Amino acid sequence: MLLQATTVQITRTESALDILLKGGWILIPLFLLSIVAFYFIIERYTLYRSYRRIDASIIDKICKAIYAGDFQQVQHLAANYNHPIGKIIAAAFENPHRPVNDIEQIMTDQSKTEVFLMEKNLGYIGSIATIAPMFGFLGTIFGVIKIFYNISLADNISIGIIAGGLYQKMVSSAVGLTIGILAYAGFYYLNTQIDRITNNMEVHLNRVLLALKDYKNCLNC
To answer: 71-129, pLDDT tens digit by residue?
Structure first.
């Protein structure tokens, strides 16, 4: 018995863009979500990168000014330092004659405000990480509906009939999951950057508080 080998020749190839466009109209909101997510990720990353390093020389000058009792200089240095820690110190030393505990509480409250401002727009990224896969799943549902609709019109089942719906189903799911994963990765990474910045600020703020306590103790000697 002779076996006949049949050769299937692919006469038409499709680019990745052609396949992507088969995802249907659901790709439009997914595309918009991806633009918003990447914009906020880049915007927050750029900001956090500028906050990552604290100029230790400025903190040294502030501590020396505290030891010297020159609180006007402390305010000047802090207010002109373009970093959240500068705003925290400036707020705490608006009235340097308060008790140390009050100044420490002001630092804590102002730190919460600065962290809140740093977290601005992160909520959008987190929401997109959740919403994008749901849009992809919605595209999957529409793809299935398209498959059954085409079958009902043709009254038969064939690869050609169901191919369009399968493309929409798989492409929309893949795009939605990809955007969701990237947005979640960006969200998690940016949150770790905030933790690093806040921990670094705490170290330097403790130096400032220690200098203030030493100064107050010297006055009471």
So the answer is: 999 999 999 999 999 999 999 999 888 889 999 999 999 999 999 999 988 999 999 99
Nearest CA to 88 out of 54, 67, 63, 112 is that of 112
**What is the rounded distance in angstroms from the CA atom of residue 35 to the CA atom of residue 40?**
9
Q: How many Å apart are CA 86 and CA 51, to the nearest integer? A: 11
Neighbour-count burial of 20, counting CB atoms closer than 10 A to its CB (0-12 exposed, 13-18 middle, 19+ buried):
middle
Q: Please calculate the CA angle 185-187-190 and round it to the nearest 5 degrees.
A: 105
The tally of CA atoms less than 13 A away on the side-chain side of residue 189 is: 14
- Chain CA centroid to CA 185, Å: 8
Mean pLDDT in residue range 41-68: 93
DSSP state for residue 24 in the 8-state scheme: -
- Would you give the DSSP letter of residue 68? T
Sign of CA dihedral 142, 145, 151, 157: positive
Let me know: does 194 contact 118? Beta carbons within 8 Å.
Answer: yes
To which H or E segment does residue 96 belong? none
